Amino acid sequence: MKTLKGAHLLYATLNMRKQLNKLLAKGNLSTGEYLVLRNVSKDDGYLKASELSEILELSRPSITRILNDLEKRNYITRMIDKDDRRNINIELTDEGRKALEQANGRILAVAERIVDSLGESDTDKLIELVEKLTETYKVMLEESWDDE
Fold first, then answer.
1. Residue 89 pairs with which residues in a beta bridge?
2. Cα R_g (the chain), whole angstroms
């Protein structure tokens, strides 16, 4: 019985993520593009492509593909690092800042709609449960798992 409940929980959370990604993708940025712009905007000035790869836990080819798309749309610029020519520095353009602001507005609107739909009490319960689930995932990741 626990296995069935656990499987149901995992499928529900995966489906929730899938639906949220679809909802957020209705804007003009994919989830990956949004995360890149958000992380580049946090830094003072610029961020290296290699740092983005580590932060987002994406392969370098995946980061490169996202950066290519963002650069074509004039949301970022890429420059070779003067101190280490092996590194590429990424910087937001004004267009990139505008796109990020629009995406942030859309995400906040989605969040408000969710709270309106669930109500304050259920939203608080859900936050508590999602945080607890996240901590459980972290503990499981620290444990050694052998294929059974």
1. 48, 79
2. 19
- Helical ranges in the chain per DSSP H: 2-25, 31-42, 49-56, 60-72, 94-118, 120-142
Distance CA 55, CA 73 (A): 23
Q: Is the pLDDT of residue 35 over 60?
A: yes
- Sheet with strand 47-48: strands edge to edge: 47-48, 88-92, 76-80
- Residue 98, classed as helix, strand or coil, is helix
Give the class (CATH, top level) of 25-119. mainly alpha
CA angle (95 as vertex; 25, 85 as ends), nearest 5? 100
Helices 60-72 + 31-42 axis angle, to 10: 90
User: pLDDT tens digit string along 75-105?
Assistant: 999 988 888 888 888 999 999 999 999 999 9
Q: How far apart are CA 82 and CA 73, in angstroms?
A: 25
- Model pTM score: 0.78
Q: Where are the domains of the chain?
A: 25-119
